[in-house]
Amino acid sequence: MNKPIFKKFGALMLCISGIFTALPLVFPVIGFIQWLSIAPAAYVFICMAQDKEIKLSRIYLAGLLFFESYFLVIFHWFLAMYPLEFTGISKAAAVFVVLLAWIGVSTLQAAVYALSMLAFGALLRLRPEGKIGTLVLMPTAAASLFCAFEWIQTLDWWGVPWGRVCLGQINAPELLGSASVLGSYFVTFCIVAVNFFMAFCLTVKNKKQTLCAILALCVFLLDLSIGIISQLTYTDSDKTVRVAAVQGNNPNSNEWREDSLERMLEVHERQTREAAKNGAKMIVWSETAFPLKFFKTDELHTRVSSLARETGATILVSAFTEGEQEETIRVSLIEARPDGSF
Length: 342
Prior knowledge:
By secondary structure, the chain is of the alpha/beta class. It is built from 13 helices and 4 strands. It has helices at residues 5-26, 34-37, 39-50, 56-74, 91-126, 132-152, 173-176, 179-182, 184-201, 206-233, 252-255, 261-277, 298-311; strands at 243-246, 282-285, 314-322, 329-336. Strands 1-2-3-4 form a 4-stranded mixed sheet. A hairpin with a 6-residue loop joins β3 and β4. α12 (261-277) runs parallel beside α13 (298-311). The longest helix is centred in the first third of the chain and has 36 residues, at 91-126.
């Protein structure tokens, strides 16, 4: 492929690549496309890094464009929040707020992830162009950097642990199965490495091109073989546990009103008893269904404790608790046990 093509169509390739890489997280049935979708963007990053006249800052901007496209798909659900009726704002204001949240959060994520491609570009410029060692090491480096930034994004409040590439493979147990042995980041690593090996195929010729293709195939087969072996060697346990999920469906307009506590408790208690009657031994409540701190509200934690004893089930409650600093809160997962303890 003619390298200058990235100068004409680079932005388009980055956008399309980012969109198609994210789509399997929304529609897992098309997860197979991730093994190809990053290659166009990878080709652009490689060409930009090999062109010494292009500043590294432009590689960062290219990464920003790719990941912005990726996260705009991931965060498409912000659009479903319109018209934000529970806030009382006008529809025009709701459009502005929704778009600001959708684009703003996507940009925040992309700004961090783009650093991985900046680092990749800097590393590639330190390696001799077209050398065998470069063709072997750089896709590995790109995949490692990608995984490192996926991990970094899980460390604090702004992280998106459910927005990782590997989750696009949930409909392909043979390809995702390696996660049970080597972790989910290994799946992401393989996907990114395969794409970068294929992208390097487009920048070299003859035997080197064949080498890159073989390496891409080897990484894919490695992930596939580990996944198949893990599937074949899996032994199911004789002990099973029936689990139920309870969704109180409290309207957003009522969720943060303290006078909704009694009604929401009654809904959750009724559904929990029904689930336990049908054999559920673990019952999961929806996230922060109550607007109060769990252990600061006697009625809330007392009734949950009593309910766990009554039903003989373990109840998992997502609720607010005291933070480490004064006047701060955190969202915690609280396990109410059948003996009434937490």
